[in-house]
Design a protein that fits this description.
Radius of gyration: 48 Å
Low-confidence stretches: 1-57
Strand order of the largest sheet: 4-7-6-5-8
Order of helices and strands: HEEEEHEEEHHHEHH
Shape: rod-shaped
Largest sheet: 5 strands, mixed
Structural class: alpha+beta
Number of strands: 8
Number of helices: 7
Helix content: 55-70%
Distance between the termini: 104 Å
Length: 385
């Protein structure tokens, strides 16, 4: 029946669930095969391999000891987490804390009732000598579907927790560089008060631009991981709510443990991400302040330049007026000289005129004519402009 349903036999006897690769889909896609008591097979697509061993194996025995040869070596890498989950029926032993502690190598136990007291989960949340986390689920009223969802929730809780913690090494790596950049920005901010000229302002603005580029590079390199931390944190909170935990005999629950162990790492990643964004905003504010200083300095220089241009224009106007006056006198002088030569020539040919009187009377006339000519030229030039 199993050979007909999925095309293969179980890897070893008494296996209730196992996984195998599909032909056609990517290698990471596998089939999860579940055998019921009648020996028939049910299959569903599963993105990662999952092997659930028979309940007759104790928690003390690593689950991979009964797996097919080289099964562990052929798992996709890297391995995020390894969990050994066993689901058992209630018994006298499952209610004795000392007996259960022995299954977890004497570590402090974490336990709670879940799904409205339909099951009880035991764990120590420690990596044991076999390299696996151990969970003991005491089924006190769950049907097979509910049991499967509970096991999947426990698997996802640990997977999401480990994925969330991947952001912590990056946060620790970024923190020293972030502090150095914050100190550098503080020094630059203090240097603004000591700026003396425009060249100092431009140099400081170039340093701020370089610091801004470094900050943006850090943000772009870490933004994906820190956003993933937020997403995984939300998923973990959702899975914990689905468990509907109830405290039992004052023992720490899964939610309390995860909150104590996971929240510091999550808050660290959140703080580093927030500090990066805040540093970028501070750099922008400091750059804007420095640009304002530069713009004010440039405006002051422009105003000074305009004043000097006004002064030069006024001086040129006065010089022009002085030249116009001198030109008027020169033109009149040469005009009077020409009239004098004309009167002398008339005297030579026998025409006697009062030379001195005519020469003197020609002066105001020539001045008026010269002024009118210069004024006419200036007027025509203004019209052209």
């Amino acid at each position: 029946m199993l050979k007909t349903s999925v095309g293969t036999l179980p890897p070893f006897a008494n296996v209730m669930e196992f996984s195998l690769p599909l032909e056609g889909p990517p290698a990471s896609t596998r089939i999860l095969v579940h055998l019921n008591s009648a020996g028939s097979a049910m299959q569903s697509s599963q993105p990662t391999p999952l092997l659930v061993l028979p309940a007759i194996l104790p928690l003390r025995q690593p689950p991979y000891k009964k797996s097919p040869p080289d099964w562990l070596n052929h798992l996709p890498r890297p391995v995020i987490s390894g969990l050994h989950i066993e689901v058992v029926a209630p018994s006298a032993e499952t209610n004795e804390r000392d007996a259960i502690r022995g299954l977890f190598e004497g570590h402090r136990l974490i336990s709670s009732h879940v799904i409205d007291h339909a099951a009880r989960v035991w764990t120590a949340y420690r990596i044991h000598h076999d390299g696996f986390l151990r969970f003991l689920v005491v089924n006190e009223g769950l049907n097979p579907c509910q049991t499967g969802r509970l096991v999947r929730s426990l698997l996802e809780l640990e997977t999401y927790r480990m994925m969330l913690l991947l952001g912590l090494p990056m946060a620790k790596t970024i923190t020293p560089e972030l502090r150095a950049m914050e100190n550098k920005l503080a020094r630059m901010t203090r240097q603004i008060k000591a700026i003396e000229d425009l060249e100092d302002e431009r140099e400081l603005l170039a340093q701020l631009s370089e610091l801004s580029a470094q900050t943006e590079e850090l943000i772009s390199a870490s933004n994906y991981r820190f956003n993933a931390c937020q997403a995984y944190h939300a998923l973990i909170q959702g899975r914990l709510e689905e468990l509907r935990e109830t405290e039992q005999n004052g023992m720490m629950t899964l939610g309390e443990f995860l909150s104590r162990r996971m929240q510091p790492a999550y808050r660290t990643c959140e703080a580093v991400s927030h500090n990066l964004d805040e540093l970028a905003e501070r750099i922008d504010r400091t750059s804007e302040l420095l640009r304002t200083r530069v713009n004010l300095q440039i405006e002051a220089q422009n105003q000074q330049l305009l004043r000097s241009m006004d002064e030069r224009s006024s001086m040129q106007l006065r010089l022009q007026q002085a030249v116009e006056g001198l030109s008027l006198v020169a033109i009149t002088y040469y005009g009077v000289g020409l009239i004098k030569y004309l009167l002398e020539a008339l005297t030579e040919i026998g025409i006697h005129l009062p030379k001195a009187a005519l020469t003197g009377l020609s002066v105001p006339i020539l001045l008026l004519i010269s002024w009118g000519g210069i004024h006419s030229v200036k007027k025509s030039l203004r019209k052209r402009e």
